[in-house]
Structures are given as structure tokens and as C-alpha cells.
Amino acid sequence: MDSKTVEALLTQFHSLVDVSKTSLLISLLAITFNPTAWNIVARNEYRNKTITRIFGGNARYGCYFLALSIFSFGMLRDSLYRKALLEQPQQAILPKEYAIIVPVVLFTLGQLFVVSSTWALGITGTFLGDYFGILMDHRVEGFPFNVLRDPMYVGSTMCFAATALWYERPAGLIVTLYVYVLYVIALRFEGPFTDMIYSRRAEKAKAKAL
Predict the structure, then answer these.
(1) Count of alpha carbons within 13 Å of 38, Cβ hemisphere only?
(2) What is the per-residue DSSP string for 31-50?
(3) Residue 203: pLDDT over 70
(4) Name one Pfam family in it (predicted).
(5) pTM greater than 0.85
(6) How do residues 127-162 score in pLDDT, each as one tens digit?
(7) Overall number of domains in the chain
(8) Of 132, 123, 118, which is closest to residue 42 (Cα–Cα)?
(9) Is residue 74 marked as binding?
(10) Which residue blocks in 49-169 are alpha helix, DSSP H?
């Protein structure tokens, strides 16, 4: 690839993504903060019971507090993302006849996966109750988990993409790709740790049965 081609690509990129906007950086930081911080907090809770102790030893109250925190910061993250998009260059992404229907369907499906996941898992199942010692009796296998392995993360990513398409901001699609990569990384840490928690419970139950 020669220098002229590289220069042309960079020019095209900068016409679609304004990296000078502080709002874009803030949005990326907020997106990074959520899965990173909650995994760190949850692991600390599993090992040290910090939040549980703050709530007088009541693990359920501690989990509810974390759930409220995660939900609140999620709303803030979404607000910062929308603000960042509105300050980015606008350009039609989809053909005119699909410009409304595609993001609406994508957002609806994304929200369906997120809401139905929460409904199936419950508050403690959704918001890291496992790390508080509030374990589920059995694996949830109904919708949407019979369709997707990680429907909440997939649904959230779909909503990011839908928002970018709705506002016709190509920068939003790049942010969506970043969200997807971040979630994949988070799952590589979260999944095995959760499996370990349930494996230890199974080992303890087996030991008691002997």
C-alpha cells in the first residue's frame, strides 16, 4: 500500500470520525469502565466480601446496591455515547428505504435480549449475585439463552449499532466494534471465574454427601 493510498484512507477516516472531540474519548472511557470496574469489584467481593460487610453482612442487599450502581452507570454510559454521536460527522450509512426500519428492528431485538435475560436470571442472577454467594439452583436454558450464549452482551452491542445507524454516525459503528471486542475480553475473564464458583459449590456439596 503506497503513501497516497494511506493518505486517502486517513482522509476518509477523518471525514467520518472526528477524533478531536472530547465527548468521543469520554464515551470510550465510560464504555471501558463498566465491564472492567464491575468485574474487579465483583472479584473483590467474592474474595473479601467488602460490600456485604458494608451492608451488615447482608449479601442480598449488597448485590442490590451493586445492581443499582451498574444500572445507573449503564444509563450514564448510554447518555455519553449519544452525546458523542451527535458531535460526530453525519453521513448516510444505509439506503434510504432501510434507514429507519433496520435500526428500529436491531434496537428492538437488542432490548428484547437484554430485558428477557434479566427476567430469566432475576436481579441477583443478572448483576453478579454469584460473587456474593447467591447462586442459582440450575442453569437457565430458556429464551434467550436457548438462542444465544451471552444474550445480554449481544443485545447491548446490537443497541449500540442501532443507535449509530439511527443517527447516521459512522463513528458509532467503530465504537460498536470496540464494544464488541471489550465484551469478548470481559467474557474471557468473567466466564471461567463464574464456572469456578459453581464448581467449588459442587465440590463442597459432594464432600458433604460423602
Answers:
(1) 25
(2) HHHHHHHHHHHHHHHHHH-H
(3) yes
(4) PEMT
(5) yes
(6) 988 899 898 877 777 899 888 988 999 999 999 999
(7) 1
(8) 132
(9) no
(10) 50-54, 59-86, 101-126, 151-167
Place of cell 467520518: 16
Q: Which of 140, 115, 136 is nearest to 124 (CA)?
A: 136
Exposure b/e, 127-146, CB count within 10 A at least 16 = b: bbbbbbbbeeeeeeeeebbe
Is 32 within any annotated ligand binding site? no
For every residue of 115-147, DSSP letters joined together read HHHHHHHHHHHHTTGGGGT---SS---STTTTT
Q: Which domain holds residue 192?
A: 3-209
> Per the annotation, does 191 bind a ligand?
yes
109 is in an annotated binding site: yes
- pLDDT, position 2: 63
